[in-house]
Amino acid sequence: MYVCLCHGVSDKKIRKLVVEEGITDIKGIKKCTALGSQCGKCVRSAKEIINESAATLFKQAG
Predict the structure, then answer these.
(1) pLDDT for the residue numbered 60
(2) Residue range(s) defining the domain that contains residue 28
């Protein structure tokens, strides 16, 4: 699903950045995408996806 409609950033893209690049904060995602740079309504949803993905990643590692 699209998280950021303004720039076409999907939940899959965010999850991929967390898993493959190790990005675990919104600032890191913003460096790689245009997420949140226009209307900003997507930031809350993106943070939830980052947190869920990071938690899953750390559970698998531990």
Answers:
(1) 79
(2) 2-60
